[in-house]
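dude i think i finally got it to work??
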Amino acid sequence: MPNDAFLSVWCRDFRDELLPERFEQFLSTVPFSTAQSGFSNLVIRAVGPQEAPLFESVIGRIYQDPAEIIELVREHLNADSAYEARGYWDLWGLNTATGVWHLQPEPVEIRCYGEEYDDGIWKEYGHFQVAVGFEHFFTGHARLLGFGSEPAAATQHPDEARFLKLMTERESFRTYHARTRVNIRKLLDWMQRIERTLPVDRALLWSEGEENFEARIEEILAVR
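look at this
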């Protein structure tokens, strides 16, 4: 099962009455996919994730304007509530079975936490928590990228074996490094846009598989 990567953002001055404004500002920064713009899967929850949602958007409903979402947020505005939406952005991905690259829409799951939701979960995960995509979009597979690249262990899985063989080809490896760097820069550009748009106190990139995800992607960027 692939690991996920996340962005957590903590804001200064995040009073209850400012939550809709902050959420609209955050949504305005999303770098939409050229093929799949807008937000979907809007969910509003109260108290904690174990409770039934207060609101769920109709399947297939697309919100092109963040203001449409904020109208619904204001109707259910409470410090103990969380607001979730999905968007899509374009990332380079390699089909490890075929060796073919695709620039395609990948989901980003955005959560905005009221400060009393789930016993103050924002303290650990941020006022905004975003699942930005699979970790390997930004770190690559098999720890082949970076200064401390490691020789891949032998594998019995046919797809992994084909991938590792492909990476022995100099041009294929250079393309893999270059397109992973494109994904990293897109992620960092989005972070910078957020920091210019909101009163950010702190932002953190992290993942399920890396002890220090930010250091890992910075290392990959530094390698020429």
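Residues 10 and 59 are 30 Å apart (CA to CA).
im so relieved honestly
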